[in-house]
Amino acid sequence: MEAPRFQTVTFLEATATVISTIIGVGVLALPRIAAEAGNSGAPLVTLLGIVLSTVGLVLVTALGMRFPRQSPVEYSERIIGRWPARGVSLLLVAFFATLTGLAAREFAEVVVTSVLPRTPVEVTAIAMLALTAWCCRANLTTFAYAHLFYLPFVLAPGLVIVALSLKNAALLNLLPVVGNHPDAGAIAAGALTVSALFQGSFVVAMVIPGMRRPRRAMAASLVGICVAGGLYLAIVIATVGVFGAAATAEFLWPTLELAKTTLLPGEVLERLDAAFLMVWVTAVFTTLYSTYALTARALRDLFRLGDHSLWVTFLLPYVFLIALVPPDIVRLYQVIEWVGRFGLWITIGYPCLLWLVCLLGGARGDEPHAN
Fold it and tell me: Where are the beta strands (DSSP E) in the chain?
């Protein structure tokens, strides 16, 4: 944890970090995941996933505000004891390292399939991971500022595509709202998978100790997830509205297909998919930046080291090997779905447990250092 003199992260930077971390590689496959689970009720599935992830984010933020000078690794030891907390912290590290590797592999698959068919997947994945690792050596102030700087490039493409494509959407494609022959089990499973796409928001726990005003952390988290969740929901509505639920479920990356059918006014560009992919790379980078940095800093706190740079280097081979584990893209998405659902126990279940223990046991942290 940085010393108090490094507590320079502003409200806007914290909000931008949450938004740009959530919006990442999963934005391409999200409409397919929601359509497979809910058919025309895909927006409902997405909304349920957003609500569930918001619950987890609120719990994580509340814990961070209760212990504003400590990281999750540190305050969890204070709440439930040293060794139980360290065991779960190791799971946390393994989960986010795995999440980083799988996201890098998904990024590589999209780039190789859409833009660079002759480039090996391994080359694309290691290039992105190496860039991310190099950037993760920066301090928390630089980390938060980078997210604020890149935020317009993350948000703008999605907003433009949604706004232009909605004119081609058919309302009938979104009816009935609960889907044809709704299956409560499938909808619940789809909501869990959608919620897993928001797990990067856990990064707010790393940002709070560096905020100038930790009391504003809850507002930053809620604004961040509302903006990111609103964009995700709009993309699902636009995609299903344009293609229909059946066709959306058949596309591997429906958002990319939506960009292909979108025209700028005056037909300046016939297709936006190339431009969208260029900016989408930024969204992937900011997500990997957060999950990689969170993993390295958690290891630093776990082993009580003063600097996280050492772990940034040691993590790179492990994360890269994780990226190479799935043999093909079908298995990749199966692994991503399984890992994401398992991670909900860590990103939602564990904070819930910590919060309950705090309420019952009265564990308290230091008062926030600024109002």
Answer: none
Short-list 306, 69, 74, CA closest to 210: 69
CB 336 within 8 A of CB 24: no
The answer to whether 196 and 340 are in contact (CB under 8 A) is yes
Residue 135 neighbours by CB under 8 Å, 6+ apart: 146, 289
pLDDT, position 275: 78
Backbone angles phi, psi at 211, to 5 degrees: -80, 145
Beta-carbon contacts of 270 under 8 Å, excluding residues fewer than 6 positions away, are 263
pLDDT per position as a tens digit, 158-181? 888 899 888 889 999 999 999 888
Cis peptide, bond prior to residue 176, ω within 30 of zero: yes
Looking at CATH, the fold of the domain delimited by 4-357 is given as Amino acid/polyamine transporter I (1.20.1740)
Whole-angstrom distance, CA of residue 237 vs CA of residue 255: 11
Inter-CA distances, 42 with 3, 45, 157, Å: 45, 5, 22
- Annotate 138-198 with DSSP letters as a single string: S-HHHHHHHHHHHHHHHHHHHHHHHHHHGGG--GGGG-STT-SS--HHHHHHHHHHHHHTT
What would the mean pLDDT of 39-61 be, rounded to a whole number? 96
Question: How many Å apart are CA 141 and CA 345, to the nearest integer?
Answer: 30
H helix count then E strand count, the chain:
16, 0
Say how many CA atoms lie within 13 Å of 217 toward its Cβ. 33
DSSP type of residue 71: -
How far, in Å, CA of 242 to CA of 282, rounded? 26
What's the full length of the chain, in residues? 371
Single-letter code of the amino acid located at 127: A
pTM: 0.94
C-alpha dist (Å) from residue 347 to 28, 62, 120, 199, 337: 23, 13, 33, 7, 15
- In terms of Cα–Cα distance, which of 2, 59, 70, 11 is closest to 211? 11
